[in-house]
Task: structure prediction
Amino acid sequence: MNVTVAEHMTPKPWYKQFYPWMLIAIPFLTVIGCIVTITIAVTSPNALVKDNYYKEGLAINQDKHRLKQAQLLNLDGLLRGGNQRVAVTLQGDLEIWPDSLNLQFAHATRAEMDREVMLMKVGPGQYESDWTQLPDGHWYYHLLPENKEWELQGRIRAEDVFQIRLANQG
Result:
């Protein structure tokens, strides 16, 4: 009885080996990844892409003009928020203080969270309004009078109570 080594080593069937399953898994996982990517792309809103990007690009020059005007008027002040109130105290070379100011808060990444507050004059250079607290995070603010003659803007980190120095950045 002369048995060779080859007769004792019968190969395993293909489905019990590692390499065929590895070769099948690569394209299978690629297809699954593509399906997930397409699903995310179709169901997610394109919040950061604006339909009127061209008009906004043209408006940059107006924004620069308003910032420059705030610098010429030496406008600066304080923005305070908390306790259901927001207040702005301004200093500068304005002859007549506007009756109201428009304060816009734009969330850094989520446009649906943006807010706008109309501040009413309570004294020379002092404005207040009721408001609801901003969620914690990074926000951009824009402070403009009704006639949009000048603008103060910047970035804040909102917390329960905050106080930010407003400075012209023309």
Summary: The mean pLDDT is 82. Residues 12-41 form one domain.
